[in-house]
Amino acid sequence: MTDETTNDTTAATQVPETQEAGPAFAVQRIYLKDLSFETPMGAVAFQKQWQPKVNQDLNTQSTKIADDVYEVALRLTITVTDGEETIYLIEVQQAGLFTIKGLEPQQLTHVINTTCPSMLFPYAREVIDNTLTKGSFPALMLPPINFDALFASAMQQAEAKAAEEAKNEDTTH
């Protein structure tokens, strides 16, 4: 029994120059853009029993770097307090360079605000965990974040605000 293979794949794989390739998404690089860790109480934080309260703040920022290349930065700020005292504060800005082509503006906005931060979040979470461990604090494993739900909520709020402004503008004229 013999196997026959042919190398005539050029005709099937060539794309005519008049056709554009479909949408494309690629990660060029993921990197730590900024890290800040503060322990205002110093050694006192390790000498007392505390009832920590964890506050998490999250936002994203995107910048067009070149044609079809975007930097997306996810900023996570974790503040742990005991009453009025801050035990520690950690701020991580995890960023990535993404090549995104062939999407409509609405799709592009969605990808930049959901897919990109979803890819960055595990890296930011690991940086937070490692930094806290090195700072001699208990590890803090942040739960997953549903960026699609956050984006949908932000879009609804923006639409409601625009409708309210339009309503107020109509009543003033």
Notable characteristics:
173 residues, alpha+beta, Bacterial Protein-export protein SecB, four-stranded antiparallel sheet, 3 helices, 4 strands, flat
Write structural notes for this entry.
- The protein has 173 residues and is α+β, with helices and mostly antiparallel strands.
- The protein has one domain: SecB-like (Bacterial Protein-export protein SecB, Roll).
- The chain contains three helices and four strands; from the N terminus they run αββββαα.
- The longest helix has 30 residues, at 105-134.
- The chain is flat, with a radius of gyration of 24 Å.
Sequence of secondary-structure elements? HEEEEHH
CATH superfamily: SecB-like
Would you count the extended β strands for me? 4
Biggest sheet, strands in spatial order? 1-4-3-2
Number of helices: 3
Q: Characterize the biggest β-sheet.
A: 4 strands, antiparallel
Number of domains: 1
What's the SSE blueprint?
Layout: H1 10-13, E1 24-38, E2 53-66, E3 69-82, E4 85-101, H2 105-134, H3 147-172
Antiparallel strand pairs: 1-4, 2-3, 3-4
Helix pairs in contact: 2-3
Task: Provide a compact summary of the structure.
With 173 residues, this protein is α+β, with helices and mostly antiparallel strands. It contains 3 helices and 4 strands; from the N terminus they run αββββαα. The longest helix is centred in the last third of the chain and has 30 residues, at 105-134.
